[in-house]
Design brief:
Layout lengths: L3 E4 L7 H14 L3 E4 L8 H4 L3
Length: 50
């Protein structure tokens, strides 16, 4: 089984977090580490403010 990890980067992940995640993934033998490419979240009030 091949296992990868995807992180929601817009959730405030710092560079230090990424380094720690990458090192941990490497040590655990995970296949890959990805950052999601979603757009930033917006609140319901932002959606209905029009």
């Amino acid at each position: 089984m091949r296992v990868c990890l995807m992180i929601e980067g817009q959730e405030g992940v710092t560079w230090q977090d990424w380094v720690a995640l990458a090192e941990t993934c490497e040590q655990a033998g995970l296949e890959a580490l990805f950052r999601s490419t979603t757009t930033p979240r917006c609140s319901t009030s932002q959606l209905t403010a029009r």
